[in-house]
Design brief:
Blueprint: H1 9-17, H2 22-30, E1 32-34, H3 62-70, E2 77-82, H4 85-90, E3 114-115, H5 120-125, H6 128-142, E4 146-151, H7 153-158, H8 162-176, E5 183-187, H9 197-211, E6 224-231, H10 237-248, E7 250-257, H11 262-266, E8 273-276, H12 279-293, E9 297-299, H13 305-319, H14 322-350, E10 354-358, H15 363-373, E11 377-382, H16 388-392, H17 402-406, H18 423-434, E12 454-456, H19 461-471, E13 475-478, H20 480-488, E14 493-495, H21 507-522, H22 533-536
Parallel strand pairs: 2-3, 2-4, 4-5, 6-7, 6-8, 8-9, 10-11, 10-13, 11-12, 13-14
Antiparallel strand pairs: 1-12
The structure holds FE-MO-S cluster and 3-hydroxy-3-carboxy-adipic acid.
Length: about 550
């Protein structure tokens, strides 16, 4: 009833793009698609391509994807930003990833902000010496297990070789202190690489795989050993998942990278199974581990009570062990009463309400499950930087072709690493496929959305405003840059990145938190006061008569 008029998805698309110049409109049209509710007929969506300059995108940069996202939650790696101080400062603790060192004495550098603080002098004469000095200083102060270096835009522009510096310092420091092994590696994650955060994930994955995974063979004790890939402990999500796994008797060898320790990354290859929460940010590690170590992966999702139960069962089924299956069922049975009680109390108020979700590269999909548990419909959703496989499904779009694909489209993405794997891995993958080995796959977001809803890639401010005008959803989910513009339209806004200092939202306990939070937001009376009373009731408007 709040909807002004009922438009078809095609008409909505026209509305969104009608102000653009023809070339821009043509490109954006391919990034706005109607879902069909079925995998086979899911349309192709243009994604992972450059944002047109001038458009107010929601996206971030490659440095953010590498330093902030993938390595951000690592507590025992000293992460040094090589660049002007702003990049280090603005990526300092802004992502709300939490960590819990095993003892108060354990290493935890997450509260520090390490940067080379490059200035004009370093830009003109080069910053490599300053970087060496910073590494030595951090080493002398903390004697960490590892130091990582992150390149910002100017580093690439002036040509500092962070990898050469890393190699040299690793050799020097290990020679000077033979009793303490230090690992030092760099990332060429200059902000301008690629078209979004996504390139940074890829760069991060390649280096972690090359420099860290497989360093130690000391396995963890346990019968069912898994890694959790793509879970970053935002608002404490990983704590909830860790607790569930522990109660089921599943051993978590490592998490990439929420509440993580580098020692666990080093022995990640000793796990039996890789489970992937956020496919977009970490699929490269999963695939490389599948090829090199023969560890298969499955897609899991711990957002939503039903999905959490399904994911636990999926893990148990992989091991096929009766004892494990029984324990999983027991844990689910322990958790469900609280979920059902919460739903019974909020659902009468949330049923039938509508949502829009525009976030990163996986949450726009995962959080739809929570909304559907509350009886809410997702009208439109989209990712900032996901690729076609995240939208359309991996069976439709084999991952190996994703980067190559986008090279043929106008306005290309700059592929962060065209070689993608080293030659050896590439050959091994081909050999496995020739033997009939089937690599893991999963369903994308679009086939799971209702017919007639919209999927929109790389949404921008203009289109967000238009969507709100056309649909007036009961809630809009996105990030901090979008938050206040949306609220000014009188629509409640929930941040699905930082959770607006709420959470955790993962697992069963997280689901209960989320139901309560969304109920509070969509039923708040405050939104009706966004329009001032004198704008709503003309009789209150005073006219001033000068005569
Ligand atoms: Fe994966 Fe993430 Fe996301 Fe992501 Fe991100 Fe994030 Fe996100 Mo912000 S790794 S793709 S690059 S689930 S930081 S924890 S919330 S955009 S949807
Ligand atoms: C990033 C991090 C971010 C930003 C969140 C936001 C996060 O992309 O650099 O825009 O609100 O989750 O912290 O995605």
């Amino acid at each position: 009833s709040k909807k002004q008029k009922s438009l078809t998805p095609d008409e909505v698309r026209q509305e969104l793009i009608k102000k653009y110049p023809p070339k821009v409109a043509r490109k954006r049209a391919k990034q706005i698609q109607a879902n069909t509710g079925d995998e086979a007929s899911t349309p192709e969506i243009l994604s992972n391509v450059r944002t047109i300059p001038g458009i107010m995108t929601m996206r971030g940069c490659s440095y953010a994807g590498c330093k902030g996202v993938v390595l951000g939650p690592t507590r025992d790696i000293v992460n040094i930003t090589h660049g002007p101080i702003g990049c280090g400062f603005y990526s300092w603790l802004t992502r709300r990833n939490q960590t819990e060192p095993p003892t108060p004495e354990s290493e935890n550098y997450m509260t520090y902000c390490f940067s080379t603080d490059m200035n004009e002098n370093d830009i003109v004469f080069g910053g490599e010496n300053k970087l060496k000095q910073a590494i030595r200083e951090a080493y002398d102060l903390f004697k960490p297990r590892a130091i990582a270096i992150f390149s910002t835009c100017p580093v690439g522009l002036i040509g500092d070789d962070v990898h050469a510096v890393a190699r040299e310092m690793k050799e020097t420091l290990n020679k000077e202190n033979p009793d303490h092994f230090i690992n030092i590696f760099g990332f060429s994650c200059e902000g301008y690489k690629g078209v979004s955060q996504s390139a940074g994930h890829h760069i991060a994955n390649n280096q972690i795989f090359t420099h860290v995974i497989g360093l130690t063979d000391k396995p963890k004790e346990g019968k069912y050993k898994i890694n959790m890939l793509g879970e970053y402990n935002i608002g404490g999500d990983a704590f909830v998942i860790d607790d569930l796994l522990e109660r089921c008797g599943i051993t978590l060898v490592s998490t990439f990278s929420g509440n993580s320790s580098i020692h666990d990354f080093e022995r990640a290859h000793t796990a039996d199974l890789n489970t992937i929460m956020c496919h977009r940010s970490i699929n490269y590690v999963a695939e490389m581990m599948e090829i090199k170590y023969g560890i298969p992966w499955i897609k899991v999702n711990f957002i939503g009570a039903k999905e959490s139960a399904k994911s636990l069962r999926k893990i148990a089924q992989y091991f096929g062990d009766k004892e494990l299956m029984d324990r999983v069922e027991q844990v689910i049975a322990e958790e469900m009463p609280a979920v059902e009680a919460a739903l019974a109390s909020i659902k009468p108020r949330t049923e039938g309400k509508t949502a829009m979700l525009f976030v990163g590269g996986s949450r726009a999909h995962h959080y739809q499950d929570l909304f559907s548990e509350m009886g809410m419909k997702t009208l439109a959703a989209g990712y900032e930087f996901a690729h076609r496989d995240d939208y359309e499904g991996r069976r439709v779009i084999p991952s190996i072709q994703v980067d190559a694909d986008s090279r043929n489209i106008e306005e290309l993405e700059v592929c962060p690493d065209p070689t993608r794997y080293d030659k050896e891995l590439e050959a091994k993958k081909k050999a496995l496929e020739a033997q009939g080995y089937e690599f893991s796959d999963y369903k994308g977001m679009m086939p799971e959305m209702e017919q007639g809803t919209l999927s929109i890639d790389d949404l921008n401010q203009h289109e967000a405003d238009k969507l709100i005008e056309l649909y007036k959803p009961d809630i809009f989910c996105a990030g901090i840059k979008e938050k206040f513009g949306i609220q000014k339209c009188g629509v409640p806004m929930k941040q699905l990145h930082s959770y607006d200092s709420g959470g955790p939202y993962a697992g069963f306990k997280g689901a209960v938190n989320f139901y309560k939070e969304i109920d509070r937001l969509v039923n708040s009376k405050v939104w009706s006061f966004v329009k001032a009373p004198w704008n709503k009731n003309p009789e209150l408007t005073a006219t001033y008569n000068w005569e």
